[in-house]
Amino acid sequence: MLAERSARRGSFTLASGRQSSIYIDARLTTMSPDGLATIGPLALQHLAAAGLAPDAVGGLTLGADPVSYAIAYASALAGAPIRAFTVRKEAKAHGTGRLIEGPFRSGDKVVVVEDVITTGGSALRAIDAVRQAGATVIGVLTVVDREEGGREAILAAVSVPIVCLAKAADIMALVP
Fold first, then answer.
1. Neighbouring C-beta atoms of residue 58, cutoff 10 Å
2. Exposure of 118 in the CB half-sphere (CA atoms within 13 A)
3. Number of folded domains in the chain?
């Protein structure tokens, strides 16, 4: 699905500002019905295989949102609910002024979710936000690792397992 729907060759400027000859917009897969139905259970399997049992999953909006929600839904169907949350890019200027939305709780064991890791910047922002809110980050899950140093940047900042569902090289090997 990722190769067919989400991967392209060309000339692109990434969110990190880097130039790239490949682009993987995982949202084209993660926001589709069959993508959600696949990613939720697959992510649960990978988390269990890594020995991770989070109370909640979430990350920086927008890329992490559908992945987190798919995991939460699949976990409910499996009888072991994991809550999902969203980290805003900046705190709300009205209402409660929260940076983290959803049923997030201080003291949670959290897996930070990403759709695509390139530099690791989005995951690191989410890790900082959930730590400041009193949670413990026990791992990071990404749908795609672009294999461009993001994994290493995250590991340098926080020593937790990083679970990857697919690598860019494997996806791009299927793209003409």
1. 33
2. 15
3. 1
Residue-range definition of the domain harbouring residue 114: 26-172
pTM over 0.90: yes
pLDDT > 90: percent of the chain = 91
Across the chain, where does the E strand assignment appear? 7-13, 19-24, 56-60, 83-87, 100-101, 109-117, 136-145, 162-167
* 13, part of any domain: no
Question: Rounded to an integer, what distance in angstroms lies between the CA atom of residue 133 and that of residue 73?
Answer: 24
In a domain, 10, yes or no: no
Neighbours of 11 (CB within 10 A): 9
Does residue 12 lie within any of the structural domains? no
Q: If DSSP codes are grouped into helix, strand and coil, which group holds residue 38?
A: helix
- Rounded Cα–Cα distance for residues 41 and 33 (Å): 13
User: Could you report the per-residue pLDDT of 95-141, keeping only the tens digit for each?
Assistant: 666 899 999 999 999 999 999 999 999 999 999 999 999 999 999 99
Asked if 61 and 87 count as a contact pair (C-beta separation under 8 A), the reply is yes
